[in-house]
Design a protein that fits this description.
The chain is α/β, with parallel strands linked by helices. It folds into two domains: about 290 residues, no CATH class; about 35 residues, no CATH class. It contains eight helices and 18 strands. Helix 3 runs parallel beside helix 4. The radius of gyration is 22 Å and the shape is globular. It starts with a strand and ends in a 6-residue tail after the last strand.
Length: about 450
Amino acid sequence: MHLQNNLRISSLVMLAFLVLLGGCNKHNENYINVNVGNSKVKTTLDRTLVPVPVTTYPYISIRDVAQYDQYGYGKFTYGPGIPCQKRLDLMPAGYNGESARPAATLLHFFTVTDIHLTDKESPCQTIYFAPDTGQGGIGCYSPLTLYTTHVFNAAVQTINKLDDERPFDLGLALGDLANNTKKNEMDWFLKLMDGGLLTPSSGLQKPGTLPDYQQPFTAEGLHSHIPWYAALGNHDHFWSGSKPVIDKIRNAYIGKTILQVGYAMGAAYQIGLNLFSMGTIDGSTKYGDVIGCGVVADMGTIPEIAADENRRTLASLNDWLDEFRTSTSKPFGHGFIQSDPKNVLGACYSFIPKSNIPIKIIVIDDTQPNDDTVLCPDSIFGHGELPKDRYDWLMAQLQDGQDANQLMIIAAHVPIHVLTGTIPLAGFRLQVVTVAKTSLLNNWSSSQT
């Protein structure tokens, strides 16, 4: 008898910007609620948010947020839903799943990924490069930067509403929780998951004069019965998800001087140059005006900002892992602390979500090592890679699961695809690359690793 393993994965849609703005204006309530009411929550299975096309293309800068409405930018409507993807490419040739009967639900869980909680007032961003990096520029700058905490708060409330309809067994947060490997960004993520009062700003603030996106609010937090687990992403590991944090950048995080670099998306030496001022956001302005951004030689006096020790980097893996010890939601450590040492290696770990179901979840850290010279001598560190120690650990975990007759789920930030014969691997690295930055949750057997 073939058993179709129905692992229910709920997909979430970040709620409309308009809804969030409406909720943020209720300063006296000190609480943001997405007002989903008693109606059934819509997910991306039901519908999607799609931008309304702009019929004419007047030239305005991405930073001219005040002009968006005038020219029709930033407007969205609903589009059709997206069905769950079936990864039949992982199965034997000719397999279509139709012969798998009967069906059974084994796990019901949610995933969130690429949240990119952003300290918009940081002096250590990459705003200058946003116009030059295409769709990837959203990681450098977007007007939504002002509201990343509010958007994720809405997502958590949506998860809770879905949990009311049908309880979740667990959740997986699959990396890029922070945008720029910073302590205050990770503190916001944990507060949004745990619940409590959150102040979505940094530096020196003047109470009573802040725009809506800067106002403190109380996060609802994830329902306390749901255990959630985390994975490391490149933005949790590298400066802006792109380069290892060297002393120049480390000092800039907590300083008052806006970072200046060369073309930092290229060769490593460019970080040491002072050609371009990266810019930051003036959090006292209605639309989050960008300041201190441009070609240094053309700028004259570049403004300084208020320093903030809470902006310090978490680029050290141990520092990042220690953050999860401060969380008040469950489980303690959110996967990174395991009773059996063989089930954890750095930011890789495995666990059995339900003792009565033969399923093992393996979470891997597939961010690149800081000393990578194979993929990134002159590029960004946004690819995926498993050095030999992590690869060997994964193989051992898969073999243990195979021996125990377990179904296995590999969870990672960068989706897995093994390259062979494309890039010289020097015999000691397994490369894991992707075309699009999405999360991977699939059953694999050891024969397919």
